[in-house]
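input
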Amino acid sequence: MRIVSYDELRDPRDFLELMEACFGEISVPEHPDLLQRHDERRKHEFGFGVYRGKTLASFIGVAELKVRTRSGKTESALGIHHVATHPAFARQGLCRRLFDFVHDRYCKEGRRFSFLYTSRSLVARSLYCELGYKEILMSGTRAPRALLILPPTRKRPERNRTRIADLAVAERLFAEATAGEYGFVVRPHGWVLSRLKQWKMKTDYVFIDRDGYAFTNPDRFGRYIEEFICRNRTAYVRLLNRIIAATRGGLVHYYVRDPILGAIYKERGARFRYETYASLMVKPLTRASFPSVFGPRLFQSPVDQF
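output
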């Protein structure tokens, strides 16, 4: 079985066909190209696959993740994404062999841990467990998800205006808020703009205040809030009012970590959902112990998903 890199695929459309067959996902060649161009975690290699005949039968994406350990040092870890096996070639051990290949390759390059996101409802999760992956606690996962339905109005949504220069405020505030956290808290200069570019999002989707910011993603029927960090209650209220003024329908905020913000949502009649099926899993590639390196839990934000 010959394993090829993404750049060695016979045709980039083979990846599109595989993603559509497995997930119904439209992944035109432009999408991986944007990720490689603007996401510092995927610049070196996007992933590996194996063919059966003319069909890309299985694929695993890889990323280089920068993580902060309990010692305060930064190290590289392996990130797994876009795991897929074509239904016509399921249960032939192709995915397992790709996992063995990437685990061995990146262990030799000095990676001590491999991370992946999944869901407790996915069939593939049992394979991950067999391969040695274990679910880990993430800082904030016990925090609720807030759901706020906005009252109908005939007023036009107010447009948020954010300049590229303003995005540096979000970077400073994130570094300040996560100074004592471990895990996915290492973000290079310009990370906000790079995340926007890789998903073809606008700078106006980020709401900036001198004391806070909110990274949002609008939807046809509302808006998702993926990260919301402020220094105080006054800043939360100011920014939330601006977000509401720019939104029609409803708001969904993942992981309301700050109890101050949770109280504000409660005052405005939001509903809260505590259960989650999302799961972050880790596998040691060496004899290193995850708890001794990172502690009992890891900081993670939806903005950091890979």
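quick obs: The chain has two domains: 3-140+276-304, 145-273.
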